[in-house]
Design brief:
The protein is an alpha+beta fold. The chain is built from 5 helices and 5 strands. It has one domain. A hairpin with a 4-residue loop joins strand 2 and strand 3.
Length: 122
């Protein structure tokens, strides 16, 4: 199994998914480096490379380069956005600006998912 294949399989077995905290932490590191206006946190439903069918997943996107940064299992893997969405079968996504992600984390007390329809999938 390569890094790309392991990303979704790792999260499928974890009830809350480590990806939410890891993606949020990576977003905050980009904010700290002055890139807040160029990035967003995304929670979404992915369907490929998952032993459980569809799973809720989290990643970071860079607007200027149209890249996805997936930091699952502490690996920082970059993808071209369109390729990522095709490869992992992204079915639905909810993007959060840096400010929204901070507010949602404080308000909820957890790293996600924050969308009620995603919560039902856990």
């Amino acid at each position: 199994m390569n890094d790309h294949e392991s990303i979704i399989q790792i999260n499928a077995g974890d009830a809350k998914g480590l990806c939410f905290k890891q993606a949020h932490d990576h977003l905050m590191s980009l904010v700290d480096s002055g890139q807040a206006d160029d990035c967003c946190l995304v929670h979404g439903i992915v369907s490929r490379n998952s032993r459980d069918g569809q799973v809720v997943h989290a990643w970071v996107e860079l607007k200027s380069t149209h890249e996805v940064i997936d930091v699952t299992n502490c690996k920082c893997i970059r993808f071209e956005r369109q390729k990522y969405y095709e490869t992992y079968g992204v079915k639905r996504e909810v993007p959060y600006s840096c400010d929204e992600a901070i507010r949602m984390q404080i308000r909820s007390g957890h790293y996600g998912p924050w969308d009620a329809s995603f919560e039902k999938m856990l």
